[in-house]
Amino acid sequence: MGSEHVQQVAPPSDAQVVDQLRADISAAVDALEPELIEVRRDLHAHPELGFAEQRTTTRISQRLKAEGLRVTPVHPTGLVVDLGPAEPRRRIAVRADIDALPLTETSGLPYASVTGGACHACGHDVHTTCLLGLALALAPHQEWLREQGYAVRLLFQPAEEVMPGGAHALVAAGHLEDVDQVFALHCDPGSDVGQVGLRTGAITAATDVLTVRLTGAGGHTSRPHITQDLTYALATVVTGLPAALSRRVDPRAGLALVWGSIHAGEAGNVIPSTGTASGTLRMLDADVWDSIGPLVDDLVGHLAAPYGVAVEIDHRQGVPPVVNDADAVAHLVSGVTTMVGADAVVPTPQSLGGEDFSWMLRSVPGALARLGTRTPGGTTYDLHRPDLVVDERAIAVGVRTLAGTVLSSLVATP
Known about the structure:
This protein is of the alpha/beta class. The chain contains 11 helices and 16 strands. A hairpin with a 5-residue loop joins strand 1 and strand 2. The longest helix is centred in the N-terminal third of the chain and has 32 residues.
């Protein structure tokens, strides 16, 4: 009998395995896209404000449990989902915010908000759906995750739009303690669908809430000299404080104080005894943010002093800037390039918007990317506008971006 030659087939390399995972996940996203769009429209029609996202949490939880995933509720709302081994050699987290804004929607969409005074005008319904899509796309590959010692943690975070926001609750509960890197997406209606904006370093600004309350002896407008003319004093603070800050703070800090609410009095011939001005104080520089409080107090006091009014200042530090880690941005570049396309990566500027994902980045290195949601050639909307319309093709782009980034970050383990 002649000898037989048995051909040895080499096992696939790690790179080949990851390439196949990318292909499998991409195909899964194609199959999931109709369902994800339906989920997003359901969430969009039923928005819920911060720490009241009961229906949103239940809707997402039920779908995840149906897939056999481990779901941990967060008090009072929100979810944490873990894939892979309980004690991995590397764990990557991805976060989505799930709350809406206190606005009445005016988009006219057939799935517009049915809840008066609440709508998803910041795209959090898209963020939530992208994270759900990531969970569903990764679920069939948990055996590979366990074999490799890799874990993925999905953070469905409540209350991003309030201060202090839900990121504090997740950090305080320890959900970031055993995480190596954390990532997030944010809708960008100024960029076309299919584009993902990336930036190393600060990508958002520090944001505080500032309220100034003045009190004094009111009276008749014919005799301001025997009153403490509170309205005039308040106007002086409102106009003078931004100007004074611009001369006392390094302009490279990008500081901007904008008042959103000013109120004093009810009648044109009465000097009121109380008045308030509330606004946001934003800046690009984290060091200035850490030290600005005493200067604000000092300037308000000096501006109001000539009028003899009493001053009460409520300066609440909101969020620091989101500062993207260079290594994490490199994984985003890899993820977008491999799963969306090399031409999908675009530069993005630092904005004066605030984002409480920054608190997570003070605990764990990571990065936030901007997901283009504008229909090419279509209308450019703005966030926090009640007529915001999102091109829903961005959902699949978002899932692919997150999946590619997670894979890139996991396999970076030496």
